[in-house]
Specification:
Blueprint: H1 5-9, H2 17-30, H3 40-56, H4 59-84, H5 127-168, H6 172-185, H7 190-203, H8 207-218, H9 224-240, H10 244-257, H11 262-274, H12 279-295, H13 302-314, H14 318-331, H15 336-348, H16 352-364, H17 369-377
Length: 379
């Protein structure tokens, strides 16, 4: 008997929603492929558990599924009752006895009584017959392949939609399993590749797998804005893998396709600041990204405002650096890191008393690196 979703989770059909969730969590941890060396068997079982929870964890889908189980049980019982029924005229084994063999009334005919006729030779296939046969076979093959492609497409879209619903509910494991199943039926499904890549990058921190999905999605990405966004994601993954030069190149190509991406400007500026240490270019990128966010009416990210101040500091443009640090403090007065950076800036200007005051504030705000600077530079 094939297992249903209750059998997969190892629970009874009367189990509560809490029991379903508890069983899913236990099996998801127990059967995760990473704990079994990437075993294909455990991967399939893990997927089956995810699919079962996707049905039983949703009250509406579970009710529909229970109705299907009850209908299947009724059909099985009806078939069993029909098999047990036996008509009165039937024998024990359910079939009538064969008729008796006819009695032989005379001996077989002799050779003199037999009549022979010439069997005409069968006509050979002509070229036209071969063409018709091959055409028929080709039509059948095309029909079968077309039907398979249509079914694969429908199944892939259905799995993608289920994965998208799980994605919106932050059910990352289930969403990943649905997207993987959709790609099994349609490997070039760009939307599923992009969504699975986002889960790998932002949730699982598997930058290599995310990069592979994004690059596969780039194959069929047509609009320039979509290609630009995918290249931006590839650049983020390369930066996460420590490949700074390749990441900078990917951001550059992305911005050539769509120069309105503030996040791409900021990301390239961060790589140029910390990895390549080209401070002038980093300050230009960060300035462009912050200006685009201001034009769009979006709040300025304090992290990148701090990065730009650091780039100005490295360029010895202390006035611009102080302006950025002050702007960050206006939004977040308890930012210990910025107080520490202002202390370094005061040191650079030859003002040790102000530097010590900023270091002291940073220590009180819990910034650990400021304590060492205070001990080394302050009496």
């Amino acid at each position: 008997m094939s297992q249903n979703h209750y059998h997969v989770l190892g629970i009874a059909a009367t189990a509560t929603a809490t029991d379903v969730k508890r069983a899913y969590k236990r099996l998801a941890v127990e059967l995760h492929p990473d704990k079994h060396g990437g075993s294909a068997l455990y991967e399939e079982r893990f997927k089956a558990v995810a699919v079962a929870y996707g049905v039983l964890g949703d009250p509406q889908r579970r009710a529909a599924y229970d109705q299907q189980l009850r209908q299947a049980a009724q059909r099985a019982a009806e078939q069993q009752r029909q098999q047990q029924y036996r008509a009165p005229t039937q024998h024990v084994y359910g079939v009538p006895m064969p008729p008796p063999a006819p009695l032989r009334t005379r001996r077989p005919a002799g050779s003199g009584e037999r009549h022979y006729r010439t069997i005409p030779k069968q006509r050979r296939f002509t070229r036209r017959d071969y063409l018709l046969t091959f055409g028929l076979l080709a039509a059948i093959l095309a029909f079968v392949l077309g039907g398979k492609l249509i079914m694969d497409h429908v199944t892939a879209v259905s799995n993608y939609e289920d994965g998208l619903r799980a994605y919106r509910r932050a059910r990352w494991s289930a969403a990943h399993a649905y997207f993987t199943q959709a790609l099994h039926f349609k490997p070039e499904f760009g939307a599923a590749l992009r969504r699975r890549g986002e889960i790998e990058q932002l949730i699982n921190r598997d930058y290599a797998a995310a990069r592979a999905d994004y690059e596969a999605a780039l194959t069929d990405a047509e609009p320039a804005a979509e290609r630009a966004h995918l290249l931006f994601r590839v650049g983020q993954c390369l930066a996460g893998l420590g490949e700074a030069d390749a990441a900078e190149q990917s951001f550059t190509v992305s911005l050539a396709l769509d120069s309105t991406q503030s996040t791409a400007w900021l990301a390239r500026g961060e790589v140029r600041l910390f990895e390549q240490q080209t401070f002038t270019k980093a300050a230009e990128d960060l300035t462009t990204g912050l200006r685009l966010r201001t034009r769009a009416g979006r709040p300025l990210p304090l992290k990148y405002l701090t990065y730009r101040g650091l780039a100005y500091y490295k360029m010895q443009d202390l006035t611009q650096a102080r302006a950025d640090y002050r702007q960050v403090l206006e939004a977040n007065p308890k930012n210990g890191q910025v107080h520490f950076l202002l202390g370094r800036l005061a040191q650079q200007e030859g003002n040790p008393s102000a530097a010590c005051e900023f270091f002291e504030r940073a220590v009180r705000l819990g910034y650990a690196y400021a304590d060492e600077a205070r001990r080394q530079n302050c009496p």
